[in-house]
Amino acid sequence: MNHSIYSADRATHLKIVVVALVAGIAVAGLGITARSGSDEGLTQTARVIKAGKPVVVTSSNASLVR
Q: SS3 letters for the chain?
């Protein structure tokens, strides 16, 4: 029995690809179900915050020249 993936035959490679594909579909389906199943009318809305006047916050009295 050889445990190397490089020397595995074609059927073994096909089994690995099929198992990975089924597992990926199962995880994606579970994620979609959990996402859409938890909708209880709690929707989020974005609020617009307008910028006010600029504020300068410093910890020293030194002037800065830019």
A: CCCCCCCCCHHHHHHHHHHHHHHHHHHHHHHHHHHHHCCCCCCCCCCCCCCCCCCCCCCCCCCCCC
Rounded distance between C-alpha atoms, residue 6 and residue 32, angstroms: 35
Structure tokens at 47: 């609020």
Take residue 57 and report the two structure tokens written for it: 């916050």
The identity of residue 42, as a single letter, is: L
What are the tens digits of pLDDT across the range 13-47? 999 999 999 999 999 999 888 876 555 666 677 88
Copy the structure tokens of residue 37.
């199943």
Quote the pTM value: 0.50
In the structure encoding, which two tokens stand for residue 22, read together?
């089924």
